[in-house]
């Protein structure tokens, strides 16, 4: 695409990254992500969430949390998909989120944490 003078947008990059993650090519997906950022294309909450989820699924929870931190620092606000990926990804992250850990509070809105406490309770009861 780029060779032909067509620069992909955030949606195109997101689709490529998502496909690579689904097929298990996380290193390639991350390289595409880095290319995206280097070209000044702002990743969406969906793109970050896909990378976070994929890393959690393969046990690379520290990499997932690094992506989460980068997401917040760059001004992309996490959503329910992002938090769910972290909650399901690792018991220690689940504990941080569900207890409203101070470190995560600096990244999140308190009502998001409270919502996830309610979500988690409903999931356990149901």
The largest sheet is: none
String of helices and strands? HHHHHHHH
Count of domains: 1
Count of runs of 4 or more consecutive helical residues: 8
Task: Find the CATH superfamily.
Answer: Tetratricopeptide repeat domain
Structural class by secondary-structure content: mainly alpha
Cα distance spanning the termini: 47 Å
Approximate shape: globular
Structural features:
126 residues, mainly alpha, Serine Threonine Protein Phosphatase 5, Tetratricopeptide repeat, 8 helices
What does this structure look like?
The structure is a single chain. The chain is an all-alpha fold and 126 residues long. It has one domain: Serine Threonine Protein Phosphatase 5, Tetratricopeptide repeat (Alpha Horseshoe). Helices cover 71% and strands 0% of the residues. It contains 8 helices and no strands. The protein has helices at 10-22, 26-38, 45-57, 61-73, 80-89, 91-98, 102-105, 110-125. It starts with 9 loop residues before the first helix and ends with a helix.
Describe the structure in brief.
This protein has helices spanning 10-22, 26-38, 45-57, 61-73, 80-89, 91-98, 102-105, 110-125. The chain is mostly helical and 126 residues long. Mean pLDDT is 77; it is low at 101-111 and 116-126.
Topology summary:
Blueprint: H1 10-22, H2 26-38, H3 45-57, H4 61-73, H5 80-89, H6 91-98, H7 102-105, H8 110-125
Helix pairs in contact: 1-2, 1-3, 3-4, 3-5, 5-6
